[in-house]
Amino acid sequence: MRVYLILALVVAACFCVLAAGEAVRRADARQSAEREAAIKAREAADADRERLEGALAVTRAREEDLRATLQRAADAQRVRDTVQAELLVSNDRLEKAYMDLAQMEKQLVDVSRAKNDLEQQLAELRDRGRIPPLFPEEPKIDGVVLGVSDKVNLVLISVGTKDKVQVGWKFTVYRGDTYVSKLVVEKVEDGWAACRELTDFRKDAIQQGDKVSTRVFD
Prior knowledge:
Layout: H1 2-128, E1 142-149, E2 154-157, E3 170-175, E4 178-188, E5 193-197, E6 211-213
Antiparallel strand pairs: 1-2, 1-6, 2-5, 3-4, 3-6, 4-5
């Protein structure tokens, strides 16, 4: 009886061992399947990531192309605006040039008419024998320097309207036999005349008492 009991225990233990082995085998198979599924999922995720990164790179390249296209369009618009502005300015200048040309043509017509009138008057004077000299000769007049003001370029001389001096006449200034400078009359009174020194012709500073004359002005 005891033997049967021991055999029953041994058989039960064997069944337990077999059941435990089957459970371990099933657990291993399940872990292996889970591990395989995890590997496939990771590979799929990597593939999706690579695909997304590729799509992102293409999108970024397209964005750069669009930005470059927009920049070129903006540059072209600025160039067009500049050209249009310059064209408007050129049109304004051209219109002003046409107006100036028309004005000059009118002035030319007026000058031509005046010239024709003068030529006709000159012809009539020639026919009558009464053509006045174009540059009347200045009379020979002598005088002295009464005063000099360098600050305002003023020289007073001792001859005036009583000596028939006229505005615009020119005098030579000399000291003894030495040439000094030249003057042009700007205002005339009865006994004196106010002159301006022609400084380009100055050889020496004008002094009170220097002689003046129309005779040596050439």
